[in-house]
Design goal:
Blueprint lengths: L1 H8 L5 H52 L5 H4 L7 E6 L7 E6 L11 E5 L4 E2 L5
Antiparallel strand pairs: 1-2, 2-3, 3-4
């Protein structure tokens, strides 16, 4: 009878075991979550860079037909929850395409503003 009572009392976790398990989960979460969020920001940045490259192709196509580069209104900017796209300095010989981070993407501190121009100069270089 004592053996049955001992087995029944030994079903479950002690407070110490529970605290150790929670500490391990907390440490893993503290390491994994920031890394995951950084990967998400990099993925969104990659999408913005792809949009800028597509816009550059559209600019070149527009110039073939019009002998000048398009403004933001003429080119039509893509919609994004994380970047605002625009054209600056559009003329017959030059333009600059700009993607400016917004919402959660502003936490991508070193890459808040991405640009590419008619000569494929990309800034900031570390973000491309």
């Amino acid at each position: 009878m004592n053996k049955a009572r001992f087995r029944a009392a030994n079903h479950g976790w002690s407070l110490v075991e529970l605290m150790i398990a929670l500490a391990i989960v907390g440490i893993l979460g503290a390491i994994a979550v920031p890394s995951y969020l950084e990967n998400i920001r990099e993925s969104r940045r990659m999408e913005a860079k792809n949009e800028l490259l597509q816009l550059k192709l559209r600019q070149e196509s527009y110039r073939l037909d019009n002998n000048a580069y398009a403004t933001s209104a003429q080119l039509g900017m893509p919609a994004s929850d994380y970047y605002t796209f625009s054209v600056t300095g559009a003329s017959a010989t030059q333009f600059s395409l700009v993607a400016t981070a917004k919402n959660e993407q502003v936490k991508d501190v070193n890459c808040k503003v991405l640009t590419i121009d008619q000569s494929s100069n990309k800034t900031p270089a570390a973000c491309w």
